[in-house]
């Protein structure tokens, strides 16, 4: 599938494959400020039965930043090109926050390529553009440290003690790649298009998620996408898969079992 001529893309994303070579493929998309290692808690369960394709956003996880302007649709077009490069005709997709938005965009851009969809701690619209533009300007001016210093409070509940590895991912992110992804979030709004998503969809929300709380974000996805199921995970903030990995992993594998059967 070649992206529509009017869709800007950013080349083939940095990626890696794990799991049985002959198993159905599941693509995993990370959040703003994290690398593909965000999915390490889910990897053992997923790679037992599925071929897992993880990718990094531009400037994240050691990947180079790409010339902007960034858009969520452009990031999705890059994932479509990656599937072409790897000769993967159809895959399930699971993504967190920005990675979830990329999954929604991919399901709209190439519906026949997305067999099943998991949208984790994400939204059809991430609020007003102004704060994202301001954050992008801050990072371009001062680097990622100002946002890294407050990341644990945005991403996790106050009692969570395992934030350091995830904050370290943000500190290693290239400022221009981070800022460009903020610009992508600023301009993203798929609210009016959700009814066109045809993939069987699971929406996962952290009950204590500050950036994309269940009310006004996850519920809009679940209500807008035909037949979508919503699971709210108690005791979890924005990176629910890191904070409550067992619950999130079980929800994902159960959904994939129903919609994208793995290797027995």
From TrEMBL:
One of its GO terms (molecular function) is hydrolase activity. It comes from Actinomadura nitritigenes. Pfam families: Abhydrolase_6. InterPro entries: AB_hydrolase_1, AB_hydrolase_fold, AB_hydrolase_sf. Residues 26-250 form the AB hydrolase-1 domain. This is Alpha/beta fold hydrolase. Keywords: Hydrolase. It comes from the Bacteria.
């Amino acid at each position: 599938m070649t992206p529509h001529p009017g869709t800007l893309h950013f080349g083939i994303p940095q990626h890696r494959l794990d799991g049985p070579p002959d198993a159905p493929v599941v693509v995993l998309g990370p959040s703003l400020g994290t690398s593909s290692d965000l999915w390490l808690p889910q990897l053992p369960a997923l790679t037992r039965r599925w071929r897992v394709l993880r990718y990094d956003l531009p400037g994240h996880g050691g990947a180079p930043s790409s010339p902007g302007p960034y858009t969520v649709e452009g990031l999705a077009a890059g994932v479509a090109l990656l599937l072409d490069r790897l000769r993967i005709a159809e895959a399930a997709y699971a993504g967190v926050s920005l990675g979830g938005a990329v999954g929604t965009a991919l399901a709209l851009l190439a519906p026949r390529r997305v067999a099943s969809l998991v949208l984790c701690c994400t939204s059809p619209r991430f609020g007003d553009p102004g704060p994202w533009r301001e954050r992008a300007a801050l990072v371009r001016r001062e680097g990622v440290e100002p946002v890294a210093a407050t990341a644990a409070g945005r991403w996790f509940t106050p009692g969570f003690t395992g934030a350091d590895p995830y904050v370290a991912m943000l500190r290693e992110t290239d400022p221009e790649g981070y800022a460009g992804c903020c610009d992508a979030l600023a301009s993203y709004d798929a609210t009016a298009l959700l009814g066109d998503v045809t993939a069987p969809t699971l929406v996962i929300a952290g009950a204590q998620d500050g950036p994309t709380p269940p009310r006004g974000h996850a519920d809009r996805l679940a209500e807008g996408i035909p037949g979508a199921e919503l699971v709210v995970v108690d005791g979890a903030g924005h990176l629910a898969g890191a904070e409550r990995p067992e619950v999130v992993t079980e929800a994902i594998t159960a959904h994939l079992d129903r919609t994208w059967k793995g290797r027995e």
